[in-house]
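Obj: model holo form, ligand = magnesium ion.
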Amino acid sequence: MKITGVTTYVLRTSVDKPFTSARGWWYKTKNAMLVKVSTDEGIEGWGEAYGPAEVTKTVVDTLLAPSISGHNPFDTDVLWEKMYQRVEDYDPQGFGVAAISAVDIALWDIMGKALNRPVYALLGGAHRKTFRAYATGLYFSAEEGDFNTPAVEEALAYQEQGFTGVKMKIALPPKEELKRVQQVRQALSDDVELMVDANHGYNLTNALFLGKAFEEMGLAWFEEPVSPHDLNAYADLRNKLQIPLAGGENAFTRYAFKDIIEKRAMDIIQPDVCCAGGITETKKIGQIAEAFGISVIPHVWGSAVGLHAALHVMAALPPAPHSWRPVPMWMEYEQTENPFRDHLVQNPVEHDGGIVRVPEGPGLGFSIDEKVIDRYRIS
Ligand SMILES: [Mg+2]
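Output (holo structure tokens):
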């Protein structure tokens, strides 16, 4: 089998209610950069890159597509290295790796379809086929001066839907934020876990103040308390706090995760399959983490293509630790409005009482609705 073509798609739609995290960058649109890889046997595979869509599209079009054309799509390791060599000297951590991720995911989709097997089976099989889903939401929106009440209402709505975990965005000054988190924690049932995500908006002092309080409140984890560029600060926090620290959604390739793991900076790493290097690289990151006793709970924030890819990798990640009763794997289920998550494929990922199952069809296990692509494609 040979790769005969690589097509890129930028999809865009506006959102009704713009929102932000601690980054202060307002989401006014939802975007997706999809890749379709075609072969001489008529089998096509789909992939997705996380991050600014026009940039990753350009990388695929100008650098990656020419370097894999004519090659066998089953050579995933070889093609990954080939693509990485095209970006390594200029962008070893960033858009280049996100673009590689999209192509790599599409290659796995092709292999699964060619063999009539789900991708997780090609990765060595599923250690687990179901995941507890946690709802990611509770962002900040422009018109909400008082953030407290909307956060509680939104959290309770997720609980009502059956989610057993809720992750809220935090960004306000520490004392103010603490009140907001306390209100949400008190409103939720004891059997619903609460995570907090600061999107690296605090310094070490404020993160320590909040982390101690979160610890007493029994929160599940504290995500990106401080800058991802300051792994020493993470290691300091980790020595002083018992609450698990999470991060890694903006780390790319096994080399970045090697640094996190070497510094023992985080309890939970969160590679995103659509930017950390695709399925090939995320599996390697998971194996390195397992050897060092670090949990892996991937970051998931994309269209139906990315969600499907994430579930296959998550099924195949080694249990850490091996146990009679292993810790169940969480699946991040982002809840802001997104037609590319809900309508892009004919069989979208859905949760049943907060439980999501790994897709069972060939390849990634979906069929794209090309009408949705035509409707939202801008380039
Ligand atoms: Mg996050």
